[in-house]
Amino acid sequence: MIAQTQKNRASRLALVLLMGVSLSACGASERLSNVGQAPGMSPIVNPQTQADYKPISMPMPAPEVAMQQPNSLWQSNRKSFFKDQRASNIGDILTVVIDINDEADLENKTDRTRSSSENAGLDNLLGYEASLGQILPDAIDNANLVGADADSSHAGSGKIEREEEITMKVAAIITQILPNGNMVIQGNQEVRVNFEKRILNVAGVIRPEDIAIDNSISYEKIAEARIIYGGEGQITDVQQPRYGQQVYDILFPF
After folding, report:
1. What is the pLDDT of residue 252?
2. Pairing outcome for strands 183-193 and 93-120
3. What is the pLDDT of residues 77-128, one digit of tens each?
4. Please, what is the Cα angle at 83 between 80 and 87, to 5 degrees?
5. Cβ burial, residue 92 (10 Å; 0-12/13-18/19+)
6. Pfam families recorded for this chain (predicted)?
7. Between β-strands 196-206 and 146-177, what pairing exists: parallel, antiparallel or unpaired?
8. pLDDT single digits (tens) 45-55
9. Could you tell me the CA-to-CA distances from 48 to 24, 54, 87 in Å, in that order?
10. Residue from 112, 122, 113, 124 nearest 147 by CA
11. Is the CA virtual torsion 33, 39, 43, 46 positive or negative?
């Protein structure tokens, strides 16, 4: 039974390693085909036609019916009298200002100690305690038949220091207007310098009231914000461990 279990584990390990080698081969073949070429740029497409695009659905208040009084140009659902040039319809463009300067410093320490002791004996048992010597070894003491001691201690400490700073701007497109007037935005930006490509993606939900007069909005006013900043290219590849090392780190138990 033990031999069969070890055989099954070895088979699963071999299968995982084979899958890792296959993925590595696929990635290696793609990289070999791009030797000497700069990273390709993604085409400009309609976000709503992408396979991973999903319209956002959120709780909405009851719809309001616009009422217009006779001999009046004002409608009850209007929020401003004059029209400005800020983004307000699907397809309009606005600027997202990203200025992240976060710093976190966390430190925790835990100490725990516990000790216990148990003793049990059988001094008297209707006179039969004298007969225990016929069953148990001579060295057994009736008054100290059972004794147990336990000590445990635990000490743990941890410290986290993190600092992030990103300052940039990116243009985003309004892709959806929710029933309550909030707008869904999405923006993608790619910049290639030599053989390194910088990628910036931003998405989320904004309020029209938060758009500044210069048609920009700050990132902290974006609800459900998703900001991705990364890159592709030769330098990024060198900074990543090999596939074999990643598989080894996952499978090695020590």
Report:
1. 74
2. unpaired
3. 565 566 678 888 888 899 999 998 888 887 888 777 777 777 777 666 666 6
4. 100
5. middle
6. FlgH
7. unpaired
8. 888 888 888 88
9. 32, 8, 18
10. 122
11. positive
